[in-house]
Amino acid sequence: MGPTAVRSLTFHTNRRRYGPYGDEYGTYFSTSFADGRVVGFHGREGWYIDGIGVHVQQGKVPRSLRAAASRSPSPAPRSDPDPSDVDEEVPYAA
């Protein structure tokens, strides 16, 4: 048995699915939340990514923050949705 490592990552929102990134192989894990937004990620690494976690701000996202998110420049325009869709997107990871 080899080292424990994150081999694949997929994100789901209420609008669409992003990924999978990597090879879908091994033990499946999923988590979700109803209200809130992803505000950060953390992880553990060695030779590989050994673990990954998500920081979530719970509660309804105020409309002013959703509108600001839709105007933010995208770090990866090829994989991001149309900015007009972002204000209604609710992310969760799988």
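the 2nd protein, sequnce then structure:
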Amino acid sequence: ASSELAEEEQKTDDEVLSVGDAKEAGLTPLPCPVAEFSSTLAPKERAVLLRRFRSAKVKCLVCSDIVARGIDIPAVSAVINYTAPSHLQTYIHRVGRTARAGKVGHTFTFVASGDHERFKTMLQQSADCWERISKFTLPSAARSQPPWWAEAKQLLQRCLESESKGRL
């Protein structure tokens, strides 16, 4: 995270606040300065990082829920949830980082197909949230599993069977 703090970049209006688990987001290389904002950073490091984000020297923050409440960053144009939260209140606090003070903002939430109904039910608790939701399905190539996935799944199944029979 320290190397991201040292990068300089010109100020633009396009800023993205990415909310999710930093490990799940992966911090893959992107064509803009990206930094992790989580409880693993010391409070002083977080303060420096927020200043750098507000001044657009860092364009994208990958955050844990530490940022979901109480931190006001006026220029956030989008929130990306890499994992769908389980509770409506968490979702509202996460997406509340964008569209502050009457400005337009966007939220994108990746929801696994098996979690879609739970997520939909959760959002229906707030009619205001559900009315503005658009569903997009990722192309099948993006959903395909890596080559080792089937083998790992079979190994896990064998381990679970052995464990249930008392062999582990």
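Confidence is low (pLDDT under 50) at residues 1-15. The longest strand covers residues 16-19.
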